Structures are given as C-alpha cells and as structure tokens.
Amino acid sequence: MKVDELKEAFINMVKPEDLNEDLRLVAEQCGLDVAIRLADKMPSMGIYVRPIKGMGEIKERFVSKYFTGSNRKEIALVLGVSDRWVYEIYKKARQEKKNQPGLFDSLSPKTEKE
Question: What is the pTM of this model?
C-alpha cells in the first residue's frame, strides 16, 4: 500500500468515540484527518482558538470582490452571515466607490469666486 492509502486506512479506523469532546468538534468542523494530525502533532497542548482579528473587514472585502448580483445566498452560506448582510455590504462598497475622487479630479482647474 502507498503512504496515502495507509493514511486513509488509519483515518478510517478512528471512530468518534476514540476522540475527546474537543477533537470531535474539530473533526466535525475541519475533518477527521485534521483532528488526528492535531492530536498527533500537538499532544497534551491546550489550544484556545481566537477569532481572526478583523474578520468582519475580511468578509467585507470578500463580498466586494466576489458579489455578482446573483450569488448573494451562496456568499452568505460561505461566510456564515445573512444574505441581507451581504447585500448591505455590497451597497456600502458601491457607495464608497461612487464617492471616491477620480484619478484626475485633482488636476481639473478650480474656479474661485471673489
């Protein structure tokens, strides 16, 4: 058997009851292979997973880049937010782009009234 096949066979031998509560949660959310690697590479280490700093901003950038007008529900599912939130972020980004000065706006002559 090849190494990948052996890894797969090993993963298939692990049952949910073999894992502690935390590792079961990791397996459910990230996959059994991730839970097994965590247990193997970081045994007896307590890990506290903090939210990614600025996650809201990252999600907003994602919406701004990938929103097409017809994929609102799909983006909401990927990000774990409501489809209404996706649309609100899209509207906000669109408004900000509208309000941005153009590249040559500062070069246009200004008239002063005396």
Answer: 0.52
